[in-house]
């Protein structure tokens, strides 16, 4: 009897083991797409935070080049002292935007000099060419400028000298030279010789090798990281800098276009936002202004998505609002921006765009009004914008804020009001721990399919915060990948999505995690970047249902999945997340009249250690592993690695 019982227990155990090992069945209805995917589904969100613009993607190496910081001598040091009044800062109220300049009174023919420290140093590369330039006036015959780039040991590693032509009005002079050594922490010396009085301004140093070779342009390697993602859109200029700490500090696009020398600098609102990361030297010079943002979007094939202030300052700071009867200026800014982007060159703002070198329109189709604003005061102001914009530009889709959080009273209030207004797109933000992203993969499954579209405008999985660049972990990225299967499955509701923030400088960040990290020389993508890139470069055109026992694959047994079909490449693309510490076997039953080719491409991001991160020293710890796999028929068995995100791309006939 004992032997019979033992045998029965053994068989039961074997049966249980067999069940545990049998693959999970997933059904894919390739011929029954449930909706179309927006061509700009996956994009990027840019905000000048963490030295993202000045000191980052804007390739200027000189900090405070026009002496306009609150402390005019910040970043500068006098190398030689002359008599009192030798170095004299002037503030000329007649000059547009850029009022301050430096006067050198060299009455005794001294060798006068200035040194600039750059943005946490200056990154220069051996053999590369750099251009120094400045504006000057009142130059006397015989005056010369000698430029030196110094390494961390104060050794000269690049230099040039050039004469100044006599000038009674503002002129520009420039010289190109190369450096002989690579360093991330160089500094610049500028020496002046010749007797007389010299006015100088806009002292500048740029790499010659910028993005697309544009003079005084963008940092090539940082833009390339964006171009490699093939983003469908770029949202700019933020973010909280749109609101400003107060309305005087808000982003005003009209002050960021036209001649660089006339763009009015303001303090960056992240300058003193966080006491643990004070950045008193953080300003916005607007060398990267709205024209450059539009140009960047065009360069990387992305739809431009500008966001404008709605007449409200950041509600976490002053919460200032413009009286409704004084909102016309803000509404006019929106109307004029559409003219700047799309208008004929015969219009005022279209003409300015043409004068800046782009007579063709930028084809603006969407415009955001407000960023993370909430409350009835926001709805009142948004209604004024909506009425004016709908009347004059019904072709422009309006994006409205749902506040700072994805749930709660504020969100519920705005969600109801915005839907009642029939706003085009609602911008939802979520900065949450990995557990929230995992549990929210079904967030949009029950949203109204015929209602307002959703823009997942800012999201990031936070393991801890605030922290440093080493904390952009695989755990965070994998939870985002799982959540994004839900965004993709509901792409008929979710029109756009973007991670935030985009860039972080390892020596000058205020907020983390971030998608891409840089120092003055190098750049790397975090695990989250690798996830975002795989989604963006494999977005497809149609949503394909993939289900387990008739339900979405959204977390049961820590398995997540979505599927798309791409009409252009004629490929079925499966995305699967295994959020388990063990491999998981899955049977994929593809129902279709189409023929599947036997050879498929498999791309995997995986690591058994959820705490692992990429870094400047090891930028590819989490990076795609590509394999060619062969399947037979339309019922495929695949084993997914522990803690993995996998794409399977199958061609059809």
Automatic annotation (TrEMBL):
<dbReference type="InterPro" id="IPR055235">
    <property type="entry name" value="ASD1_cat"/>
</dbReference>
<keyword id="KW-0325">Glycoprotein</keyword>
<protein>
    <recommendedName>
        <fullName>non-reducing end alpha-L-arabinofuranosidase</fullName>
        <ecNumber>3.2.1.55</ecNumber>
    </recommendedName>
</protein>
<dbReference type="InterPro" id="IPR010720">
    <property type="entry name" value="Alpha-L-AF_C"/>
</dbReference>
<keyword id="KW-0378">Hydrolase</keyword>
<comment type="similarity">
    <text>Belongs to the glycosyl hydrolase 51 family.</text>
</comment>
<dbReference type="InterPro" id="IPR051563">
    <property type="entry name" value="Glycosyl_Hydrolase_51"/>
</dbReference>
<keyword id="KW-0732">Signal</keyword>
<dbReference type="GO" id="GO:0046556">
    <property type="term" value="F:alpha-L-arabinofuranosidase activity"/>
</dbReference>
<dbReference type="Pfam" id="PF06964">
    <property type="entry name" value="Alpha-L-AF_C"/>
</dbReference>
<dbReference type="Pfam" id="PF22848">
    <property type="entry name" value="ASD1_dom"/>
</dbReference>
<dbReference type="InterPro" id="IPR013780">
    <property type="entry name" value="Glyco_hydro_b"/>
</dbReference>
<dbReference type="GO" id="GO:0046373">
    <property type="term" value="P:L-arabinose metabolic process"/>
</dbReference>
<feature type="domain" description="Alpha-L-arabinofuranosidase C-terminal">
    <location>
        <begin position="457"/>
        <end position="644"/>
    </location>
</feature>
<dbReference type="InterPro" id="IPR017853">
    <property type="entry name" value="GH"/>
</dbReference>
<feature type="signal peptide">
    <location>
        <begin position="1"/>
        <end position="20"/>
    </location>
</feature>
């Amino acid at each position: 009897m004992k032997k019979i019982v033992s045998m029965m227990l053994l068989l039961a155990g074997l049966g249980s083991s067999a069940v545990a090992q049998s693959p999970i069945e997933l059904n894919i209805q390739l011929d029954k797409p449930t909706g179309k995917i927006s061509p700009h589904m996956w994009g990027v969100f840019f905000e000048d935070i963490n030295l993202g613009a000045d000191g980052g993607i804007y390739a200027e190496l000189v900090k405070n080049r026009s002496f306009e910081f609150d402390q005019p001598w910040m970043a500068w040091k006098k190398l030689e002292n002359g008599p009192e009044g030798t170095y004299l800062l002037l503030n000329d109220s007649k000059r547009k935007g850029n009022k301050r300049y430096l006067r050198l009174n060299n009455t005794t023919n001294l060798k006068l000099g200035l040194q600039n420290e750059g943005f946490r140093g200056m990154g220069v590369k051996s053999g590369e060419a750099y251009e120094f330039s400045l504006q000057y006036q009142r130059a006397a015959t015989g005056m010369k400028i000698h430029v030196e780039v110094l390494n961390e040991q104060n050794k000269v590693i690049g230099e040039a000298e050039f004469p100044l032509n006599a000038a009674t009005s503002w002129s520009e002079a420039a010289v190109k030279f190369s450096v002989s050594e690579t360093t991330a922490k160089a500094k610049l010396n500028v020496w002046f010789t010749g007797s007389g009085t010299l006015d100088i301004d806009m002292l500048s140093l740029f790499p010659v090798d910028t993005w697309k070779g544009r003079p005084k342009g963008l940092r090539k390697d940082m833009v390339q990281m964006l171009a490699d993602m093939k983003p469908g859109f770029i949202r700019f200029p933020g973010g909280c800098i749109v609101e400003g700490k107060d309305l005087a500090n808000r982003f005003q696009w009209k002050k960021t276009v036209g001649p660089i020398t006339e763009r009015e600098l303001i303090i960056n609102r992240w300058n003193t936002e966080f006491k643990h990361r004070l950045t008193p030297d953080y300003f916005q010079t607007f060398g990267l202004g709205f024209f450059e943002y539009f140009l960047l979007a065009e360069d990387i094939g992305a739809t431009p998505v500008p966001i404008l202030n709605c007449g409200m300052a950041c509600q976490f700071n002053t919460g200032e609002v413009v009286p409704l009867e004084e909102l016309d200026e803000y509404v006019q800014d929106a109307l004029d921006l559409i003219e700047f982007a799309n208008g004929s060159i015969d219009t005022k703002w279209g003409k300015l765009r043409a004068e800046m070198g782009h007579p063709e329109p930028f084809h603006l189709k969407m415009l955001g009004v407000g960023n993370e604003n909430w409350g009835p005061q926001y709805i009142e102001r948004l209604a004024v914008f909506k009425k004016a914009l709908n009347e004059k530009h019904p072709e422009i889709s309006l994006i409205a804020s749902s506040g700072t959080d994805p749930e709660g009273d504020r969100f519920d209030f705005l969600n109801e009001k915005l839907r009642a207004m029939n706003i085009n797109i609602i911008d939802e933000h979520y900065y949450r721990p990995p557990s929230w992203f995992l549990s929210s993969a079904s967030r949009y499954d029950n949203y109204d399919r015929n209602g307002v579209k959703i823009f997942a405008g800012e999201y990031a999985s936070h393991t801890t915060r605030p922290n440093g660049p080493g904390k952009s972990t695989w755990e965070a990225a994998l939870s985002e990948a799982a959540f994004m299967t839900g965004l993709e499955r509901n792409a008929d509701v979710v029109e756009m999505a973007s991670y935030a923030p985009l860039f972080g400088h390892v020596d000058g960040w205020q907020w983390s995690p971030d998608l891409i990290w840089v120092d003055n020389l190098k750049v790397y993508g975090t695990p989250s970047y690798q996830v975002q890139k795989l989604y963006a470069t494999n977005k497809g055109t149609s949503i394909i249902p993939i289900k387990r026992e008739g339900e979405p694959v959204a977390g049961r047994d820590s398995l997540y999945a979505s599927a798309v079909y791409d009409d252009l490449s004629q490929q079925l693309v499966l995305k699967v997340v295994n959020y388990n510490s063990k491999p998981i076997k899955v049977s994929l039953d593809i129902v279709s009249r189409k023929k599947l080719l036997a050879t498929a491409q498999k791309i995997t991001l995986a690591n058994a250690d959820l705490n692992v991160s990429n870094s400047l020293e090891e930028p590819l710890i989490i990076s795609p592993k590509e394999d060619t796999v062969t399947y037979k028929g339309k019922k495929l068995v695949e084993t997914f690695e522990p803690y993995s995100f996998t794409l399977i791309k199958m061609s059809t006939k």
